[in-house]
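Late entry, zinc ion complex.
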Amino acid sequence: MAKSEIKRPDSLTEILIAPCGMDCGLCSGYLRAKKNCPGCNGGDADKPSYCITCRIAHCEELAASGTRFCGTCGQFPCKRLKQLDKRYRGKYGMSMIENLGIIREIGLDGFIEREKTRWTCPECGRLICVHKPCCLACGYVWNKAQGDAKEGNHAG
Ligand code: SF4
Ligand code: SF4
Ligand SMILES: [Zn+2]
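Prediction complete; structure with ligand written out below:
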């Protein structure tokens, strides 16, 4: 992908934050050039089936809570969320549960600003993809431990 096609940190917005705490704006499915996923809160066109049928996004407790995030649910963090979080912490060095805690602590706007800083490539200033060990624009290695990350390992 050409560097000019890689999104900038300013592209991160509230709508990209999923109920589980995933920042869809960092997802390889969202960042890819063609048939890009609109994010968990977007429509189902070009969204992978495992995210369309995600049990967290369609959780009854979440619907009943009347809020957008798992962090305000009485069962937080439930087993389902802990499993997802464990996978992401181990493989991608990112924690949904930590994200939700930060949203509770400083609010969604503050979290977005924090994300913009955290996921800006120090070499080229573009947005870093959480699913890839190297910056998509310049190749800067931000996560040496993530050597075997593969396309398709999204939140769902
Ligand atoms: S593939 Fe899933 S995690 Fe990635 S942007 Fe789409 S909904 Fe979000
Ligand atoms: S924490 Fe678990 S039970 Fe609560 S809304 Fe999220 S997925 Fe549902
Ligand atoms: Zn870069």
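The mean pLDDT is 91. Will revisit in the morning.
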